[in-house]
């Protein structure tokens, strides 16, 4: 395969070790985020997904190994240049008290501004569009800290959209959202990927949504990558048992054909099925 602009990874990590104080949470991790695709990280609680995402956005420095963005060490990229290339929605972002939705989303434009070019028509357009596609236009004047959990989550997503970065990292973007809004947000993420070619890396809790929306799945367990690839190849009953300690059956999703994980649990085994 010839290497073109299209398949040169923008974001990759090699030999990554991440720790808090003395405790190593992620170790010897290699990751290549396929450019122009949607990659979803799955794994049990506390396996290091958010820690990894934060390191990929330089919110946490590695103890060993390195992260490369556009072929450069992440550590060598000036902050504003980084913020024009890569946006992150952390797991539990907190907005300053009283900040309005419009102001929050406007902050997504600050990496694009300079002392000689402050707020521009481009910024105005980007903010209006981000509010529109997240359904937040009518709430633009409201304070972020007075919104419901789901509205607040959409305000943050709008900020990340307004930043217009080629690489977008999202840590559980569907938290707090009802099912209809979960689907809206995931559809929006796919639009950003398909229509604008953005590379997306997100953490999702719901394996079935991960299977539907990911081109590429990365399964983590105890700070390491245990499987990666297309959902149909990666998400098997054996993987779910290994990663989540959950016995399940996998059937094709009747809508998308992707793997649909049916957990068994202790109370619902089919009569006559082997224990
Ligand atoms: N700021 C922190 N300080 C110390 N330990 C942390 C911090 N953040 C996360 N951890 C620990 O690191 C491990 C991985 O956490 P995290 O990356 O948030 O997991 P996940 O996102 O997969 O649920 C957990 O054991 C967690 O308690
Ligand atoms: Mg997390």
UniProtKB/TrEMBL annotation:
<feature type="domain" description="ABC transporter">
    <location>
        <begin position="3"/>
        <end position="247"/>
    </location>
</feature>
<dbReference type="GO" id="GO:0006826">
    <property type="term" value="P:iron ion transport"/>
</dbReference>
<keyword id="KW-0067">ATP-binding</keyword>
<keyword id="KW-0410">Iron transport</keyword>
<keyword id="KW-0472">Membrane</keyword>
<keyword id="KW-1003">Cell membrane</keyword>
<keyword id="KW-0813">Transport</keyword>
<keyword id="KW-0408">Iron</keyword>
<dbReference type="GO" id="GO:0005524">
    <property type="term" value="F:ATP binding"/>
</dbReference>
<dbReference type="InterPro" id="IPR027417">
    <property type="entry name" value="P-loop_NTPase"/>
</dbReference>
<keyword id="KW-0406">Ion transport</keyword>
<dbReference type="Pfam" id="PF00005">
    <property type="entry name" value="ABC_tran"/>
</dbReference>
<dbReference type="InterPro" id="IPR003439">
    <property type="entry name" value="ABC_transporter-like_ATP-bd"/>
</dbReference>
<dbReference type="InterPro" id="IPR003593">
    <property type="entry name" value="AAA+_ATPase"/>
</dbReference>
<dbReference type="InterPro" id="IPR051535">
    <property type="entry name" value="Siderophore_ABC-ATPase"/>
</dbReference>
<protein>
    <submittedName>
        <fullName>Iron complex transport system ATP-binding protein</fullName>
    </submittedName>
</protein>
<dbReference type="GO" id="GO:0005886">
    <property type="term" value="C:plasma membrane"/>
</dbReference>
<dbReference type="GO" id="GO:0016887">
    <property type="term" value="F:ATP hydrolysis activity"/>
</dbReference>
<keyword id="KW-0547">Nucleotide-binding</keyword>
<dbReference type="InterPro" id="IPR017871">
    <property type="entry name" value="ABC_transporter-like_CS"/>
</dbReference>
């Amino acid at each position: 395969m010839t290497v073109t602009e299209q398949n040169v990874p923008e974001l990759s990590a090699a030999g990554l070790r991440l720790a808090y104080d003395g405790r190593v949470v992620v170790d010897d991790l290699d990751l290549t985020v396929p450019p122009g695709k949607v990659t979803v990280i799955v794994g049990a609680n506390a396996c290091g997904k958010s820690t990894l995402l934060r390191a990929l956005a330089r919110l946490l420095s590695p103890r060993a190994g390195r992260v490369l963005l556009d072929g450069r060490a992440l550590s060598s990229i000036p902050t504003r240049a980084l913020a024009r290339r890569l946006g992150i929605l952390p797991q539990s972002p907190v907005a300053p008290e009283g900040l309005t939705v419009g102001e929050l989303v406007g902050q997504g434009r600050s990496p694009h501004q300079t002392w000689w070019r402050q707020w521009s028509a481009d910024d105005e357009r980007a903010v209006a569009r981000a509010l529109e596609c997240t359904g937040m236009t009518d709430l633009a004047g409201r304070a972020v800290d007075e919104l419901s959990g789901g509205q607040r989550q959409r305000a943050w997503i709008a900020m990340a959209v307004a930043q217009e970065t080629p690489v977008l990292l999202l840590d559980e973007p569907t938290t707090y959202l009802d099912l209809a809004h979960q689907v809206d947000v995931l559809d929006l993420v796919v639009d950003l990927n398909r229509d604008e070619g953005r590379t997306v890396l997100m953490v999702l809790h719901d394996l079935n949504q991960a299977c539907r929306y990911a081109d590429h799945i990365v399964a983590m367990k105890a700070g390491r990558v245990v499987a990666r690839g297309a959902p149909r190849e990666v998400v098997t009953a054996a993987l779910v048992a290994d990663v989540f300690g959950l016995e399940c059956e996998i059937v094709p999703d009747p809508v998308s054909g992707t793997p649909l994980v049916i957990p068994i649990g202790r109370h619902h085994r089919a009569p006559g099925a082997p224990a």
